[in-house]
Amino acid sequence: MVSFQNGAKNREEELLINKNKLNPYNLLSSRSNNKICVFMLHGFGVTPQIFGDLQFKLSILNIDSYAPMLTGKSWSLFSFANSSHQEWINKSTEVYDRLSLEYDEVIVLGFSMGGTLATHLSQIRKVKKVILLSPYFGLYKMPPFIENVLITLFKKRNLYIKNKSLDCSKVIKQEEIFTYGYTPLKAVVELFLLKEKVVSLPKSFASILIMHSRLDHVADYQESYDYFKEVEEFEFVSLEKSYHYILNDIEQEEVYLKVIDFIRH
Question: Is the pTM for the entire model greater than 0.90?
């Protein structure tokens, strides 16, 4: 664990996972003047590039998609550390509202933390279809009271923990998914606060597809299932071999096919 003071920009590059191989963009967008757009919300500690393969498959089918950066800037760990869950909510809501003016239908897709944000959007807007991939509604095997303790301990402290492993059963280079080599604990606190806000609101009335692996070691599978089992219209697909990063894992083709089928029907 390391500590940096705010504004210590000369040390920031040391926290990036690989400054020479970064894909430093804040937006992934594919447009074909279609009437439907898939609004993609990325997860915690990753950037829009997580959706690269899925977006390519959608573009072949002339399905538009739009994936903005939600948590600061892709090349700045400090901007991520100093962003708040309310800023993530505001960004996702603003983009959704703009896309809704441009398209007849906007389907919201979220991965991990993006799934939590997508759920929130469906609570405050009339979203017809929502797709949630490994949605976060609690960390794996972490009791809620521990989250409360961590919120108290780390809310105002500039501490970073090194990202040592990736929850993916398929052998994959870490830099292909993670932008940052470290995780700011202040941002983890904001993740907890986001979840608290979402679970405190009434359930969504959207048509929801959830895909979650039983072997997820990041976002707790059971917490996800328990939350959505009370939603009026949902389909919960349990994966059996993948870990958390189901868009990159060994069942990724199954995920792509199911997502595309849900979008088109």
Answer: no
